[in-house]
Structure formats: C-alpha cells, structure tokens
C-alpha cells in the first residue's frame, strides 16, 4: 500500500513538474539501480540523463515544427551528383553550418528544378537538429504576413520575433512580383538581419533581373547589396532534376 502511494506521488510530482522522461522511466531505472547496487548519486544521474535525453528530442521536434518546412528533405536524401557543379563544390562548407555562426547569407540562384528548395530545406533541418532556430517561408507568404501585421498594427511584434531566428529561409524570390509597399516591407525586415543573422534565399532570377519584381531600382540595388554582402553565392543553373525524375518515371510506366 505504501509502495503504491509512493508511485502515485512520484507520478503526481513528475506530471506537475513536467518531468516526462523521469515519469516514463523511473520504475525501470529503479529496478536497474537495485540490481546493480547503484549509489544515490549514480541513480540520480541516470534519472536526470533520461530526462535530459527526452527534452533534447522534444526540443528538436519543436524546432522542426516551428520552422514550418513544407516537407522534410535531409542532406542524406540529396542526389549530390545531380546537383549543379557549383553546388557540389560548395556543399561541403555549407554542411558545416559555419555560415550561421558567422551570420552570413546563402543565395541559391538558378533555373527551376535544380534542387534549390531541397538544399535549403536540408540545411534548415540540419540547423534545427543542431540547436538553431529556423523559419521557412516563401517570399510571397512573408510579404502577405507583413502586410497583414501592418494593417493589424502588430508589425513591431513580428519584427522582434523575425529578428531572433538564427536562420530564415526565403524561398521562391522572383516567382511572383509585388507592389512598392510589399518591396519596402521585405527590404526593411531582411535588413534587420544584415551582418548578424543568416538568410538563405532561393531565386530563379539573376541579380540584374531583380528590378522586375522590386520595381524600384534604388531599392533593388540596396536589397542586392544587403543580401549578397559576404554571402555564399551558389550557381544553381543546371539540368532539371524534376524533369529527369519525370522522364524516368514515364519510362517505367
């Protein structure tokens, strides 16, 4: 009866304190401690280790959830030989994630279907797993969110949150044009991170074509200058991997 009461109190305390790792394993670990005649310190260390491990796993899951990736693609999933040559050459340094530590940007520029988004997501997922906070967004979604925050007068709160991410991935720059207000909002928010926090940009446009979507040549020049300063520029022009997969799929049918 006393033993049951003890277990009930342990369950109650660990639930209230949110010690899920200890709650789910303490019975098993207690048995191990008794069989191995562990000291109190060793038993406590074993309990805390389990709690720590569970929390680490949960933190990784939480970072991946917050990052809002449209799908999961890992670096191991990349067909490196199908990447454009410049991407193959620079992948080794990008995989270290040193660009995040240094606050440098990465620009993945090239024609559609060459793995820009896949590479960006894979780097973002690795960053999440290594403890960095990440946000994935398309450029069009980001501008829409900025405009909504501006109309709802919550822009400052969004700025503070946006500024804190270790890595922002801005996908699909150049697929959709936007008005002057959208361009100014985008410029001001990306500028908040200049030289301090990293951004990965994927785009199908050359820099001299950015004026087509930003409309203002002065703003365009300033945007290019801020994003490319000490950035890793990756030429993603090459054969479409999606087209290759489609051809291979049709040949099997």
List the helices and strands and how they pair.
Elements: H1 2-16, H2 20-36, H3 40-67, H4 85-95, H5 98-102, E1 106-109, H6 116-129, E2 134-138, H7 139-151, H8 155-164, E3 167-173, H9 180-191, E4 198-203, H10 211-214, H11 217-228, E5 232-235, H12 241-252
Parallel strand pairs: 1-4, 1-5, 2-3, 3-4
Helix pairs in contact: 2-3, 3-6, 7-9, 9-11
- Contiguous low-pLDDT stretches (5 residues minimum) are none
Percent in helix:
55-70%
* Main sheet properties: 5 strands, parallel
One letter per element, helices H and strands E, the order comes to: HHHHHEHEHHEHEHHEH
By CATH, the architecture of the largest domain is named: 3-Layer(aba) Sandwich
Looking at the structure, the CATH topology of the largest domain is Rossmann fold
Global morphology: elongated
Tally of alpha and pi helices: 12
CATH superfamily of the largest domain: P-loop containing nucleotide triphosphate hydrolases
- Taken as a percent bin, the fraction of beta residues is 5-15%
The CA-CA distance between the termini, in Å, is 67 Å
The number of E-state strands comes to 5
Structural class: alpha/beta
Protein model, in words:
A 5-stranded parallel β-sheet has the order 2-3-4-1-5. The protein is an alpha/beta fold and 253 residues long. The protein folds into 2 domains: 64 residues, no CATH class; 181 residues, 3-Layer(aba) Sandwich (Rossmann fold). The protein has 12 helices and 5 strands.
């Amino acid at each position: 009866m006393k033993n049951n009461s003890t277990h009930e109190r342990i369950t109650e305390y660990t639930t209230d304190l949110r010690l899920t790792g200890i709650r789910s394993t303490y019975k098993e670990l207690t048995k191990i401690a008794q069989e191995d005649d562990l000291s109190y310190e060793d038993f406590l260390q074993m309990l805390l280790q389990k709690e720590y491990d569970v929390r680490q796993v949960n933190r990784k899951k939480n970072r991946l959830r917050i990052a809002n990736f449209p799908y999961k693609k890992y670096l191991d999933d990349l067909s490196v030989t199908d990447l454009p040559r410049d991407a193959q050459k620079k992948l080794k340094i990008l995989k270290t994630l040193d660009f995040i530590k240094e606050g440098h940007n990465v620009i993945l520029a090239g024609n559609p279907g060459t793995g820009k988004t896949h590479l960006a997501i894979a780097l973002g997922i690795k960053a999440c797993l290594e403890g960095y906070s990440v946000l994935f967004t398309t450029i069009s979604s980001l501008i829409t969110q900025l405009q909504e925050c501006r109309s709802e007068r919550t822009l400052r709160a969004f700025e503070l949150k946006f500024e804190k991410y270790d890595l922002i991935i801005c996908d699909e720059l150049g697929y959709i044009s936007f008005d002057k207000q959208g361009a100014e909002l985008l410029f001001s928010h990306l500028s908040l991170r200049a030289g301090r926090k990293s951004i990965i940009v994927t785009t199908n446009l050359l820099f001299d074509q950015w004026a087509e979507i930003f409309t203002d040549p002065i703003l365009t020049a300033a945007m290019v200058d801020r994003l490319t300063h000490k950035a890793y520029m990756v030429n993603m022009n090459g054969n479409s991997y999606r087209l290759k997969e489609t051809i291979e799929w049709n040949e099997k049918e």
